[in-house]
């Protein structure tokens, strides 16, 4: 594991820098992404896809919880004992 980490670090350090054109393109893309931070409305198709993905994720989480035996409900809170004066 340590050897793999050292090898990958050496490869990253030894890789030559990209041409200035690629760096400028990345900077322009990051600027465009930073300007597009405002909220946007979803189309009905995008919204339907997002809802479907959320439902699939919830079903997967429920299956995993059932497989692992995790209770579905939170335990009931126990009030702290009264303080003695």
Descriptive account of the structure:
The structure is a single chain. The protein is mostly helical. It contains 3 helices and no strands. It has helices at 2-14, 20-35, 44-68. The longest helix is centred in the middle third of the chain and has 25 residues, at 44-68. The protein is extended and about 65 Å long.
Keywords summarizing the entry:
extended, mainly alpha, 64% helix, 85 residues, 3 helices
Rg estimate, integer Å: 25 Å
H/I helix tally: 3
Low-pLDDT segments, ≥5 res: none
Head-to-tail CA distance between termini: 58 Å
Structural class: mainly alpha
Quaternary = single chain
Tell how many strands the DSSP assignment holds: 0
Helix proportion range: 55-70%
Mean pLDDT: 77
Largest sheet: none
Topology of this structure?
Elements: H1 2-14, H2 20-35, H3 44-68
Produce a short descriptive summary:
The protein is built from three helices and no strands. The protein has helices at residues 2-14, 20-35, 44-68.
